[in-house]
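Quiz preparation item.
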């Protein structure tokens, strides 16, 4: 039973969006699709230990969920009018576009951005509790947010289909942002968690599907290239204890060089379309890191120049913070520290600002100040993997005093 439960949980986390998309598309109702799929998952837990796992577990779950949904419609006075129309149709089969259709629906422009992200993460297999933890809000608050978002979709009659091309301009930026956040939610803390790795892979796959669906949108290709480049070095990002390994210490022999080459080709094709955006610029920075023979051999001047271009399109202080890291290696640690300190009024509450200061102060042999900055970074960090990393950094700096 334990192995089947683990399998069902893994299928849910990796394929939830596609299964929900297939059922929601046919039923026109996220809540009904979710309820039906939950019943199907419970049915799998009862039957698979004795009957064995079917050849197509996701197909079995969607078909079973479809039958459960029809049963629910027949019992529901509101649903009886619909059941005659949909019951004659064959069970839906999860298609290539179903996950993207679900993401487009979850990113409907009438939803506020936090609701879009939360609903997409939920449709991608995260529990309400996990999403609440990611957003640092109480569980009841997140449950209400998700319920309200689903009610809004139902009230507006949102169709769970990939929208027509004329709607891309309104919907695409939110979809790109949400896919990026889905990837990051899995990538940042995936060292000890197979489930988080699956979420990161889900983000990569969604980005690839979006790029294939919209070949004339270079930012979709840029996002896919960016996520592929990050994912290509995932094997070196955590050590055997599940601890973060920073880029300068990663074993580059573990990187997936073939994936890096494919991502670089995808990025070049996007750039040739002549409409460069922030995702392409971020992918360009990632490519410079991925293609360098070593951390020291990175073309830091080119990285810094790309951050300048990125800041022109996305004037965020975090972009300037990252630019300062390139300044350290392209120009020197003292000018880089000046750049970081200039951001104090905007980033003093951000743990990575203090972490960057700690590294620069240590490079300038200002050990006591570096240790104080590292301790503040540890105080502000919330992600367990980052807290462990900062704890190690505090220990290192403390021993050097």
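Solution:
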């Amino acid at each position: 039973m334990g192995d089947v439960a683990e399998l069902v949980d893994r299928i849910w986390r990796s394929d939830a969006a596609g299964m929900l998309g297939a059922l929601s598309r046919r039923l026109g109702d996220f809540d009904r699709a979710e309820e039906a799929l939950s019943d199907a998952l419970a049915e799998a837990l009862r039957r698979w230990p004795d009957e064995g796992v079917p050849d197509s577990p996701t197909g079995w779950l969607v078909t079973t969920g479809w039958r459960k949904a029809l049963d629910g419609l027949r019992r529901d006075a509101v649903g009886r009018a619909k059941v005659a129309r949909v019951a004659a149709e064959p069970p839906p089969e999860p298609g290539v576009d179903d996950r993207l259709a679900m993401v487009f629906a979850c990113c409907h422009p009438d939803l506020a951005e936090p609701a879009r992200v939360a609903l997409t993460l939920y449709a991608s297999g995260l529990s309400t509790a996990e999403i609440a933890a990611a957003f640092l809000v109480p569980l009841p608050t997140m449950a209400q947010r998700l319920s309200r978002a689903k009610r809004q979709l139902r009230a507006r009659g949102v169709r769970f289909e990939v929208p027509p091309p004329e709607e891309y301009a309104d919907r695409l930026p939110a979809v790109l942002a949400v896919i990026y956040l889905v990837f990051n939610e899995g990538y940042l803390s995936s060292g000890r968690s197979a489930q988080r790795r699956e979420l990161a892979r889900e983000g990569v796959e969604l980005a690839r599907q979006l790029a294939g669906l919209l070949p004339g949108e270079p930012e979709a290709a840029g996002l896919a290239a960016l996520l592929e480049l990050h994912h290509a070095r995932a094997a070196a990002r955590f050590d055997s204890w599940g601890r973060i390994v920073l880029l300068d210490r990663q074993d580059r022999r573990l990187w997936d060089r073939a994936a890096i080459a494919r991502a670089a080709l995808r990025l070049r094709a996007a750039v040739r379309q002549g409409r460069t955006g922030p995702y392409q610029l971020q992918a360009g920075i990632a490519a410079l890191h991925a293609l360098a023979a070593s951390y020291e051999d990175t073309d830091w001047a080119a990285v810094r120049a790309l951050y300048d271009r990125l800041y022109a399109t996305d004037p965020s202080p975090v972009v300037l913070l990252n630019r300062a890291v390139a300044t350290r290696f392209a120009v020197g640690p003292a000018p880089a520290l000046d750049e970081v300190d200039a951001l104090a009024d905007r980033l003093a509450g951000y743990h990575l600002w203090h972490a960057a200061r700690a590294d620069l102060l240590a490079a300038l042999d200002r050990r006591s100040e570096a240790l104080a900055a590292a301790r503040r970074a540890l105080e502000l960090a919330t992600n367990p993997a980052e807290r462990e990393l900062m704890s190690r950094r505090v220990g290192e700096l403390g021993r050097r005093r």
